[in-house]
């Protein structure tokens, strides 16, 4: 059994720096001169929290929860390393300082304002960022403002561990309304750690074969390209568990040929077994194993839905997601730029885009597919697997954006397909239309929403239907954005089930038109078979 690591070297005992990061609040304010703190609850202390009343992107007069800084404000806030509770870094060990702030005010050049940090080595203030171009009189999401790359963070920490920050108002009479101003400190503290061997790393993660990624015993990210080889006839994952050698019975995955009929219901936990559909697509968590077996006894193939690209705080495994998989460090997670859509509800029911590059995300998704296997699902429908195409659309600033790439998405989606197949599950490619040519070979059938409305169905004909793979399509009379499309029948011949798309033959694509954006069998307006 051979082990290989990406750098081809076994890790050894080494002196290394273990990093840390913590957000701290100011310990004192040098002066309140020319600062309108009157009437604000707690005075300057309101800067220690992000107010939920100051709604991001919308003007809101949350008067008691912000401070107004006039154009002649002269004071500064003092932070201190002694506030750090996770470690005891010295000034020289500080590697990064970042201001976390949320504000409302003028964004034009005639009336801007600046955030600054004090460089103790030269006794000068250094501009970190300004409000220019960041939106005019709207509450702006929690910004993370970093020192310029040319600066040395330790130069901004005094010998006693003091760090100073201030807001400077530029020209113009308008005041700066500041809701929060906190400091994120990062450091490297030298420590000795003997890194475990590749074999020990693989063993600790329960991997006996194949590539595995994770965090080693020294807290460092590591990928071992091959944790070992399996002896024939066993194969890696062949027994149904990824990264474990095994030999299952002959695995014959369920097939979904072109022309297969379907029903999609993610809300009801119990469906009639006699619906006019060969395939039932149901929610993985809400549908019991008993009910799935009933559907299969009635001759249905069962596809189990779960979201592979978003964090849903109501799911039973929500506590398995580390916060940094769906909310950037320093953000107010309840107002994160990664919140999906506008349906986040007070007290629960929120959904965030996931950074699927994080190993923890794959761990949860592998568990979900194992759950689908255990419940008896024939296939899975992983949703929201096109996060890279939404990342650039998010109205974010600085490093709050993750920068997901098309390559990241292809890697993740292929991993989903490989993991499903290792469990003898078939898998649907859900949306991600732009990557169909690169992904179709890895997926067994396709599920799409609204490709007919947006005239995007052609790729499904080329890469799925022409290869005898089913294409399941859903359209909406009233979609989630309250946009109405007056579907009454497929346009054109009415028998092509293409509703405006050309080049399709009957059965190439199976379309369900739902009356509203709710997905349930008794909400179907008509089925285009």
TrEMBL record:
Coiled coil: none annotated. Residues 261-481 form the Glycoside-hydrolase family GH114 TIM-barrel domain. Pfam families: GH114_assoc, Glyco_hydro_114. InterPro entries: Aldolase_TIM, GH, GH114_assoc, GH114_TIM-barrel. Residues 60-179 form the Glycosyl-hydrolase 114-associated domain. This is Glycoside-hydrolase family GH114 TIM-barrel domain-containing protein. It comes from Corallococcus soli. The lineage of its organism: Bacteria, Pseudomonadati, Myxococcota, Myxococcia, Myxococcales.
């Amino acid at each position: 059994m051979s082990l290989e690591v990406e750098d081809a070297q076994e890790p050894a005992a080494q002196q290394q720096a273990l990093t840390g990061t913590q957000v701290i609040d100011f310990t004192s304010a040098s002066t309140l001169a020319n600062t309108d703190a009157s009437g604000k609850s707690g005075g300057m202390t309101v800067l220690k929290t992000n107010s939920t009343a100051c709604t991001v992107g919308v003007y809101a007069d949350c008067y008691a929860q912000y401070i107004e800084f006039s154009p002649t404000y002269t004071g500064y806030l003092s932070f201190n390393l002694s506030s750090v509770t996770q470690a005891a870094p010295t000034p020289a060990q500080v590697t990064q300082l970042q201001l976390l702030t949320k504000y409302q005010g003028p964004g034009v050049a005639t009336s801007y304002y600046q955030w600054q940090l004090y460089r103790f080595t030269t006794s000068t203030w250094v501009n970190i960022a300004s409000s220019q171009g960041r939106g005019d009189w709207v509450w702006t999401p929690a910004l993370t403002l970093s020192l310029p790359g040319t600066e040395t963070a330790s130069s901004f920490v005094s010998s006693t561990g003091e760090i100073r920050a201030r807001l400077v108002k530029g020209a113009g009479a308008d005041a700066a309304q500041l809701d929060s101003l906190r400091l994120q400190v990062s450091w490297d503290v030298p420590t000795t750690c003997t890194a475990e061997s590749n074999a020990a790393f693989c063993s600790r993660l329960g991997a006996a074969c194949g590539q595995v990624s994770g965090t080693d015993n020294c807290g460092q990210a590591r990928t071992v390209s091959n944790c070992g080889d399996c002896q024939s006839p066993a194969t890696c994952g062949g027994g149904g568990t990824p990264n474990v050698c095994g030999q299952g019975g002959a695995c014959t995955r369920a097939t979904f040929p072109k022309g297969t009929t379907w029903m999609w219901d993610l809300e009801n936990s119990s469906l009639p077994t006699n619906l006019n559909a060969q395939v039932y697509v149901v929610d993985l968590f809400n549908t019991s194993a008993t009910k799935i077996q009933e559907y299969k006894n009635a001759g249905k193939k069962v596809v189990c839905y779960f979201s592979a690209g978003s964090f849903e705080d109501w799911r039973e495994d929500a506590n398995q997601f580390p916060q940094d998989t769906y909310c950037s460090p320093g953000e107010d997670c309840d107002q994160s730029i990664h919140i999906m859509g506008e349906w986040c509800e007070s007290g629960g029911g929120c959904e965030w885009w996931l950074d699927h590059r994080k190993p923890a995300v794959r761990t949860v998704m592998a568990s979900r597919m194992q759950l689908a296997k255990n419940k008896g699902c024939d296939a899975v429908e992983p949703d929201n697997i096109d996060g890279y195409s939404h990342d650039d659309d998010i109205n974010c600033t600085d490093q709050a954006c993750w920068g997901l790439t098309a390559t990241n998405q292809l890697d993740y989606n292929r991993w989903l397909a490989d993991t499903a197949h290792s469990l003898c599950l078939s898998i649907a490619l859900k949306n991600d239309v732009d990557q169909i040519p690169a992904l179709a070979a890895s997926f067994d059938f396709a599920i799409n929403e609204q490709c007919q409305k947006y005239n995007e169905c052609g790729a499904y004909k080329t890469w799925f239907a022409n290869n005898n793979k089913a294409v399941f399509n859903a359209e909406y009379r009233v979609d989630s954005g309250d946009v109405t499309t007056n579907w009454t029948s497929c346009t054109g011949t009415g028998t092509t089930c293409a509703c405006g798309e050309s080049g399709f033959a009957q059965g190439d694509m199976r379309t369900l038109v739902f009356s509203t954006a709710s997905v349930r069998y008794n909400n179907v307006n008509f089925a285009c078979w």
